[in-house]
Design goal:
By secondary structure, the protein is an alpha+beta fold. It contains one helix and six strands; from the N terminus they run ββββββα. Strand 2 and strand 3 form a beta hairpin. The longest helix has 18 residues.
């Protein structure tokens, strides 16, 4: 993510994009659903603000996902950072 160096997004053969916390290796969120892709997600790009994520699929579609403030994905990212702090403090 351009605004968070500890968040990585990956495309998947199960038609989803997945966000990961690089501090803990834990999965943060799965981006999919009834408006999601119908085939492998093969390309991903962040908007420079970090508030949007574009995904491209073998189904020949591009989806734009709102992952900015006040969205479930943004909340999951924030919660993962709190979990990482606890995880790292316990080490």
């Amino acid at each position: 993510c351009p605004t968070d160096e500890f968040v990585l997004v990956s495309g998947s053969k199960d038609n989803t994009a997945r966000l990961w916390n690089l501090k803990t290796g834990a999965q943060i969120a799965v981006i999919a659903g009834h408006e999601g892709h119908l085939d492998d997600v093969v390309s991903i790009a962040w908007h420079p603000s970090g508030n949007y994520l574009a995904t491209g699929s073998m189904d020949t579609t591009v989806k734009l996902w709102d992952v900015g403030p006040n969205t479930p994905v943004h909340s999951a990212i924030q919660e993962s950072h709190q979990a990482a702090k606890v995880f790292l403090d316990d080490s």
